[in-house]
User: What shape does this take?
Amino acid sequence: MKQRFYIVESSCVPLPVENIDTDQIIPARFLKATTKDERFFGKNLFRDWRFRPDGSADPSFPLNNPLYQGEILLAGDNFGCGSSREHAAWALAGYGFKVVISSSFADIHKINELNNFVLPVQVSAAFLSELFETVMKNPRAKVRVDVPRQTVTDMVTGKTEDFELNQYKKYCLMNALDDIDFLLLQKDKIEAFENNRII
Amino acid sequence: MNTLFDKIWDSHVVQRIDGGLDQLYIDRLYCHEVTSPQAFDGLRSRGIRCLRPERIFCMPDHNIPTVGQEAPIEDLVSRKQVEALSANASEFGLTHLGVMHRDNGIVHVVGPEKGLSLPGMTIVCGDSHTSTHGAVGAVAFGIGTSEVEMVLASQCVLQQKPKSMRVRVEGTLGKGVTAKDVALFLISRLTTSGATGYFVEYSGSAVRGLSMEGRLTLCNLSIEMGARGGFVAPDETTFEYLKGKEYAPKGEDWDKAVREWRNLKSDNDALFDREYVFDAAEIEPMVTYGTNPEEGIPVTGAIPFSALDKPLSYMGFSKGERMIGKKVDYVFLGACTSGRIEDFRAFVSIVAGRHKAPGVVAWLVPGSWSVRRQIEAEGLGKVLRDASFEIRQPGCSACLAMNEDKVPEGKYCVSTSNRNFEGRQGPGSRTILASPLTAAAAAVTGVITDPRELL
Assistant: This one.
């Protein structure tokens, strides 16, 4: 959802699994919807890890653990690999996540998150394991993500790391603008490009 | 000292904007039914039209059944999504190759075979396997639905320019080793995130020696090592393949285009951000044992002791076990990875004179109607039917099981598709990725088999 994005300070849901693919984030059978109802996708976030085949919640899955709540998902390396389905970003947003912290993100999914005002925050592998440790020890521990300063802080240990964010995307996040708003203003440049190209 | 990737990308930059993003002009957008409806809704809510409708081609492929396409789709939710694409194409004035249209098929099979994907182009689709089109010497990559809306509206996307990687495979591939095996080998070496942030140029004598179908398979799997895309510089093989295709240039235009396309190569002194070289002779027929395409080994190999517990528990396998001889319930030949005529020829080369193993369910799904017609024209259909196989109607099918072609929970499927993720072929399904040859060997023996023994 388009919204002004500044600072998120929240407890976290830890999901220490590497290479989480977008098929796990939202299985293909939920992609038949023709609407963009984030609540529908959010209800089915991690569907086959959250729920057993009989529909009951699997208590061992962190999203089903009442100790873990919050707007930040902590995930293992290479989050969001595989399919380009933006439904994965809609599901994260629909569930209520505003930030995903990992040591790396798959390219397409990272863009999809940004286009839906979910912020992918890439931290060092060492800091990620420290954050997991903090949260596992104290599920109420908070992490602060500051977009203007581009910092992420473990509020228990006080340790802070900078994160990268494209400056244009940062401007969009902080002003609730999307790429289409920008591109629609570029028609003259697009036509000039078309008229000048050789091939 | 430019790479081919630099040349194609840079020649499509409308402007570099502050913050390091490029506004990239897109020559071709393909839309399928799953990742486009929300993008068209976006246009409607903004009250805008497509800027360049002639550059956009739509076709349903993910949801459609692979038998009985003549009748309306039974699954009402799927039907609604397929009908939405048709209605959107009509409302926005886009070419639509609908269900049962003689040119319908999987978007990544149809684009190259119609000559819609050409050397030097930028090509996108709301589908990660758009990397496939790189085989014709194009910069092709998957995008999300918001970006589909951007291209519909402005024929552009905003992208951070990826880095360049070159992967050279030198030498001659052994008997029974296909492009699919090359790709699974590369992914097993580079890992599923090894090329994240990169565009990959495939080169070397083994890659040059691949047919267009082989190159399409190789480029298709680029995303499985995290790459934005992968491509092969165009050469005589490319021109031969494209010549005469419906949308390829004709006559003098063709000669002129080929002259330009011959310049599409990396300079001899081009600098790549990363480079790998592999020996083709090292590559064997590959299978996966886990739930991620990087978890692959030679078909004759054993599951490594370093394998993770979670995927092995899902697959019902143990460390140290050999893959040869493991029971197979389903075999799937098809998908944008391996649904082309050469894949069917390979499958038939093993099946001919043999018989489908009892108890194995086989889904043979051509990537397009054109492929299906060619299967019959070459007499492959008869050989397959004589061996108790049936040929279905085209679509994505069991690659992601959005239609009825689902592998039941706990069952094993040797699949020529691209992903062995948990539940990919249906909830609880267990996928073993392999080449069409290895799939055929499993189909006739009922167990994982080294295809070289049957060639």
Summary: The two ends of chain B are 44 Å apart (CA to CA). The longest helix of chain B spans residues 76-92. Chain B touches chain A through 71 residues (CB under 8 Å).
